[in-house]
Amino acid sequence: MAGVSSALTEAPSGESAWRSRVIERSTRVARERASERAQQFLDAARAVMNEKGSTEFTVQEVVDRAPHSLRSFYQYFDGKYELLLTLFEEEMGLAVDSLIAASSEGAPLDRLERVLRDLYDLCAPSRVSKQPLFSEFAFRLLADHPEEVAAAFAPLINYISEVVGEAADAGLLRPGRPRRMAALLVQTATFTAGRNVGARQPITGDEVWEFCLRAIVPDNVADQRLERAQTMTRPPLTPNTCPVT
Amino acid sequence: MAGVSSALTEAPSGESAWRSRVIERSTRVARERASERAQQFLDAARAVMNEKGSTEFTVQEVVDRAPHSLRSFYQYFDGKYELLLTLFEEEMGLAVDSLIAASSEGAPLDRLERVLRDLYDLCAPSRVSKQPLFSEFAFRLLADHPEEVAAAFAPLINYISEVVGEAADAGLLRPGRPRRMAALLVQTATFTAGRNVGARQPITGDEVWEFCLRAIVPDNVADQRLERAQTMTRPPLTPNTCPVT
DNA sequence: CAGGCAGCGGAAACTAGATTCTCACCCACC
DNA sequence: GGTGGGTGAGAATCTAGTTTCCGCTGCCTG
How far is the CA of A48 from the C1' of C20 (A)? Predict the structure, then answer.
């Protein structure tokens, strides 16, 4: 008996090839099903969250909406927190993709402006399509598990670092490390959009962009950009960015 | 019946003077005691929080430490959330006072630098004296009740607005509204210190200050300040200031 | 001094929500 | 036809916040 169990459990790593094939075959189906089910829970959760406009739903509500039982839920997720986290990562992944796609054309500073403004809009709490994950859960998540938020933001930071790097190569920026600049820009856009701590009226996307631009770009370049922007969008009171709740 | 109840409950406001005097006298003692007890709960909560280094304590723990019962706790606070909020407001008030006191001397930009750096330090999560209220609870609070956070920050914003106004009057700043600049500065310092979303190494206070300074001050003034700071700490290494002229 | 009353301590009860457990069932596979 | 792992349904458990109950103690008032 000792021999048998030893043969089964202590097989030399050289034999592991066929073993993994067998395991892979016999678990592929299970994994596919698991992935599908998890997705169904995620969809249900998204639906509930959009209805309630907040992350304060109960696990039961999600389960009721999904074609599975509570028991299964806990088979696929460690708990509510992990559900939220997964949802957050998924949404963030999509959002980052679309931010990147929407800002892939043009001069470096144009792209940077585009991506930061879009990021601001995405994180603003009072937007048309409520995103409780970004405006509400992200803050909580950030308080509890900053590493995971950082991981979710990483692709965006990477991308913005590249754009910043290009702008720097074009001689448009003050000297500095692109990656750290990118982090500062993302933080500023995200948090200033998310909530505002001091102003009676929320800080607008225009203000955030001007602040960020000034922070990293020398005056002559910034003046030129901002003047051009102002003469193109004549009105002094930028009506299109006023949040209409 | 209607007459009596009407006389008692609908007394004309002209009679309310003596009424309030009576009420005031008979409740003053009660109010003083209440205030003292509430303070004892607050002290106990602070102690528990410092021990645990987080706001994840239970009401029971606080009550056990305070010389009063759970029942009394709920007589003085609407619940745990209100306890935390009160604590936050108290700490924030003290912190703001000390920020203001520590930055009351000097030229406007020196004062601004001082107050923003101190604010950064205050909000940094990995401080010697852990401040779970600022690094942890503030985020949660901000997600749930931004108005209250805004109220707690208001005195600081007012103060910084003044400093910014003085700097502007001295011709050191680009044109802009002091109050909104102040809000952006506070947001940037607070949130960038609190958590960092994108950098492998945390953004430092120096970086935040430079970012903020650049954002609101024209290049010639900023260059001058930053050069001076750099030559004071280390030998000159700034050959290139502005690639595009 | 008796009665009423407001505040309080102590402890149990209540609640909501998350998480886990029990048990029966079903169905692909042997 | 068996059978075992995964599953549905829902009860049970656990946690932490909140509320309630009961009896005690001062204190004011008639």
Answer: 24
State which residues form the domain around B66: 29-77
| Structure token pair of residue B69 | 């019962």
Instruction: Note whether A131 and A209 are same-domain residues.
Output: yes
**Dihedral sign, Cα of residue A9, residue A15, residue A16, residue A22:** negative
In which residue ranges of chain B is pLDDT below 70?
1-30, 126-130, 199, 230-245
Kindly give, in sequence order, each residue whose CB lies less than 8 Å from that of residue A245, ignoring residues fewer than 6 positions away. A126
Based on the number of CB atoms within 10 Å of its own CB, is B57 exposed (0-12), middle (13-18) or buried (19 or more)?
A: buried
- In A, minimum Cα distance to B177 occurs at A207
Please indicate if any CB of chain A lies within 8 Å of the CB of B177: no
B20 assigned to some structural domain: no
Is pTM beyond 0.70? Reply is: yes
**What pLDDT, on a 0 to 100 scale, did the predictor assign at position B244?**
43
Is A226 found in the same domain as A119? yes
- Total number of domains constituting chain B: 2
pLDDT at residue A24, rounded to an integer: 61
What is the distance between the alpha carbons of residues A87 and A82, in angstroms, rounded to a whole number? 8
The stretches in chain A having pLDDT less than 70 are 1-29, 126-130, 199, 232-245
* CA angle (B96 as vertex; B92, B97 as ends), nearest 5: 120
**Which of B137, B163, B187, B226 to probe the A interface (max A CBs under 10 A)?**
B187
Q: Which residue is nearest to nucleotide D28 (CA to C1')?
A: B26
Res A118: pLDDT: 94
Looking at the complex, does the CB of residue B191 fall below 8 Å from at least one CB of chain A?
Answer: yes
A79 touches strand D (CB under 7 A): no
Token digits of residue B14: 């002209």
Query: Which 64-83 residues of chain A approach strand C with CB closer than 7 Å?
Result: 70-71, 74, 79-81
CB of B88 within 8 A of CB of B137?
yes
* pLDDT tens-digit map of A124-148: 876 655 677 887 888 888 878 888 8
What CA–CA distance (Å, rounded) separates A172 from A166? 9
- For A64 and C23, how far is CA from C1' in angstroms? 21
* Window 195-234 of B, Cβ < 8 Å to A: 195-200, 203, 207-208, 211-212, 214-216, 218-219
List bases, strand C, within 7 Å of protein CB. Answer: 6-12, 17-22
Of the candidates B77, B98, B116, which is a domain's last residue? B77
